[in-house]
């Protein structure tokens, strides 16, 4: 259960909302049980009064008080149910916000190579299935289990106070096993099976997405049928395991309901004995058994919730593992360089991924404030790796990296599914529309959007799908150039841009970025803006 502890701590940061939500659920349960119990008492009392009158015995019954009580419980149950649904669903949405914010914060603190190890379908599973498994933890499992235990204890105590101690002990002997069967036993019987299902579903999702995305390659290789058969076998195995888990859950649900019904029979049998002894009246005999029937509502929710607990634990374990902070040995990384005249200093930097050979070994570089430096090299020479160390996204295996705050243009162009303006404002949220148009002019994109009806509010589509590769690259470059950081790291800044446009942008960059330090990386000097000096990685 230790996997859940960080998320339970997060959930219980809202004790007032959780308490109010639990009280609303309790009010709903008690209103339903009160409605059943009072209705049973009223029907029995009415029947007995009618029999007495038919036998010529004088008898009377107050119809108004119990009738009013029945209407009260009926209305209270409806109102409490509606309020509970609205309030607790709002609580779940707030908890979902807390979980996602915490998750994204942890992701930002984890090592980039750790995040890069997961594929897109795996991240989809983390951000949907795994998060969903945690955000309903309170409403589906914690609150119903706690309230079932509380209501069970209340009925046992009421039986001891208003009926007899023997009846209370009998109810405890029957209801406690029923509660354990609906919770702990079903969890123990399904935890390993459901735990494995979480990873199996992720593997199947990954294979299906790869099948769709790589259909052309699979067809060309003649592997379409075999890969589809693999997906079908995985799906069949998952379905089979789901069926086994559902069967075990169903048996536990049935056994739990049997125990509750045994408690009902026991309460009725011992109640009749108390009636014969003159301890209680006839209508009171049915009061407790009918109230116990109300336990079926809450007990029926528990087996399914606890059958999923194994999957919830698997989701929590995966999120804890994949979002763990970087625990690698820390290098001496500082925001301010040792020399106030420098913007960037790399001393004996070695970059290594895992147990592989170093990508960069004992690399030294000093970049003065306001200096423009170009770094060129062939594919695989380590340009992007050294750029990530310069930007502070990666820590070197050894050596020191010290730099001013940096803005980083990654090698891969990333635009969000939003408007042009929203994408640009990521670089500088307080930029005015005039500044946005000026930077668009600088990257030769102003004319492209001047003729658009929405202009700055033009929708760029998913990953900038409404733009060509070169256009998307220039938007990303404009976003970085808007940033006020004194150091800019530009990895392949002109990818997809023709030579004439590239020269035009490079000339305008000098004036726009005057006084800033720029380190650009590419395959050749002509692919970079004019630099004060150029280094070649070999």
Major sheet description: 5 strands, parallel
Query: What is the C-alpha radius of gyration, as a whole number of Å?
Result: 34 Å
Q: Report the top-level CATH class of the largest domain.
A: Mainly Alpha
Give the strand line-up of the largest sheet.
Answer: 6-7-8-4-9
Helix and strand layout, with pairings?
Blueprint: H1 5-11, H2 15-54, H3 64-109, H4 112-116, H5 120-135, H6 137-162, H7 165-213, H8 215-221, H9 224-276, H10 282-293, H11 295-299, H12 302-307, H13 309-322, E1 332-334, E2 342-351, E3 360-368, E4 372-376, H14 383-391, E5 398-403, E6 406-409, H15 420-425, H16 433-442, H17 446-450, H18 469-482, E7 487-491, H19 499-512, E8 517-522, E9 533-536
Parallel strand pairs: 1-5, 4-8, 4-9, 6-7, 7-8
Antiparallel strand pairs: 2-3, 2-5
Helix pairs in contact: 2-3, 2-6, 2-10, 3-5, 5-7, 5-13, 6-7, 7-9, 7-13, 9-10, 16-18
């Amino acid at each position: 259960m230790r996997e859940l502890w960080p998320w339970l701590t997060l959930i219980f940061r809202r004790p007032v909302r959780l308490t109010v939500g639990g009280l609303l659920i309790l009010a709903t349960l008690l209103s339903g049980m009160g409605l059943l119990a009072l209705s049973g008492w009223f029907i029995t009392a009415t029947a007995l009064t009618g029999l007495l009158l038919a036998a010529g015995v004088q008898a009377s019954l107050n119809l108004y008080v119990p009738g009013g009580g029945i209407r009260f419980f009926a209305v209270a149950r409806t109102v409490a149910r509606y309020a509970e649904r609205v309030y607790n669903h709002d609580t779940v949405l707030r908890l979902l916000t807390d979980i996602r914010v915490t998750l994204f914060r942890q992701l930002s603190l984890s090592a980039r190579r750790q995040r890069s190890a997961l594929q897109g379908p795996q991240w989809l599973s983390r951000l949907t299935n795994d998060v969903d498994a945690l955000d309903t933890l309170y409403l589906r499992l914690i609150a119903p289990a706690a309230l079932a235990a509380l209501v069970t204890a209340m009925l046992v105590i009421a039986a001891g106070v208003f009926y007899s101690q023997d009846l209370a002990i009998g109810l405890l002997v029957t209801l406690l096993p029923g509660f354990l069967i609906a919770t702990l036993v079903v969890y123990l019987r399904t935890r390993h099976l459901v735990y494995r299902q979480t990873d199996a579903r992720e593997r199947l999702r990954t294979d299906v997405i790869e099948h769709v995305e790589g259909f052309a390659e699979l067809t060309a290789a003649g592997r379409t049928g075999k890969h589809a058969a693999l997906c079908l076998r995985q799906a069949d195995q998952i379905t089979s395991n789901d069926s086994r888990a559902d069967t075990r859950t169903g048996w536990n649900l049935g056994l739990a309901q049997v125990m509750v019904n045994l408690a009902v029979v026991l309460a009725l049998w011992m109640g009749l004995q108390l009636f014969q002894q003159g301890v209680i009246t006839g209508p009171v005999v049915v009061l407790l058994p009918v109230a116990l029937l109300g336990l079926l509502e809450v007990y029926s929710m528990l087996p399914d919730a606890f059958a999923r607990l194994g999957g919830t634990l698997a989701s929590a374990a995966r999120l804890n593992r994949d979002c763990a902070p970087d625990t690698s040995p820390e290098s001496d990384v500082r925001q301010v360089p040792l020399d106030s005249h420098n913007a960037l200093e790399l001393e004996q930097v070695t970059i290594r991924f895992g147990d592989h050979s170093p990508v960069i070994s004992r690399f030294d570089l000093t970049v003065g404030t306001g200096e423009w430096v170009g770094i060129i090299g062939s594919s695989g020479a380590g340009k992007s790796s050294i750029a990530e160390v310069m930007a502070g996204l990666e820590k070197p295996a050894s050596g020191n990296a010290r730099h001013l705050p940096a803005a980083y243009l990654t090698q891969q162009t990333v635009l969000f599914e939003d408007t042009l303006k929203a994408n640009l404002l990521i670089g500088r949220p307080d930029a005015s529309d005039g500044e946005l148009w000026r930077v668009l002019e600088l990257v030769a994109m102003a004319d492209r959007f001047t003729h658009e009806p929405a202009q700055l509010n033009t929708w760029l589509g998913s990953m900038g799908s409404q733009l060509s590769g070169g256009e998307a690259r220039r938007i990303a470059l404009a976003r970085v150039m808007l940033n006020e950081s004194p150091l800019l790291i530009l990895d392949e800044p002109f990818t997809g841009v023709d030579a004439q446009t590239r020269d035009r942008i490079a000339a305008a960059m000098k004036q726009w970025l005057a006084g800033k330090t720029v380190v650009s990386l590419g395959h050749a000097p002509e692919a970079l803006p004019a630099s004060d000096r150029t280094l070649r990685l070999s």
